[in-house]
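Hey, sorry to bother you again with one of my protein questions. A protein chain has come my way and I'm curious about its shape. It would help a lot if you went through both lines with me. I owe you a coffee for this, so here goes:
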Amino acid sequence: QVQLVESGGGLVQVGGSLRLSCTASGGAFSTYAMGWFRQAPGKEREFVAAVRWSGDRTDYADSVKGRFAVSRDNAKNTVYLQMNSLKPEDTAVYYCARRRFSLSWIGVQNNYEYDYWGQGTQVTVSS
């Protein structure tokens, strides 16, 4: 059973930065794309960023392009989300997820393409 554990969330002021981490255990990691999603109160879960299994390709939601950077370290079974220039609208619970199929990149923004999810970490941006 794959387990994903996020960390690094917290309270930050507008314009500040945070780095989220997600460490995987109990299953394969290096052959799966990984995604980050977020859910704000009263809103649906939305795609934030994804990184291919090799780390050589990434994808971002328009709302975070140029501010967020996703990366991974397969030796540590960990994926990261560096968040800069944070805005109040970035406030949400952030989740990492593993793709349903290995070596698959199609539909990377669709949450139904992921089958393992972390418990989430809260990010709050205060103005």
The longest strand covers residues 18-25. The mean pLDDT is 97. Residues 36 and 58 are 11 Å apart (CA to CA). The radius of gyration is 13 Å.
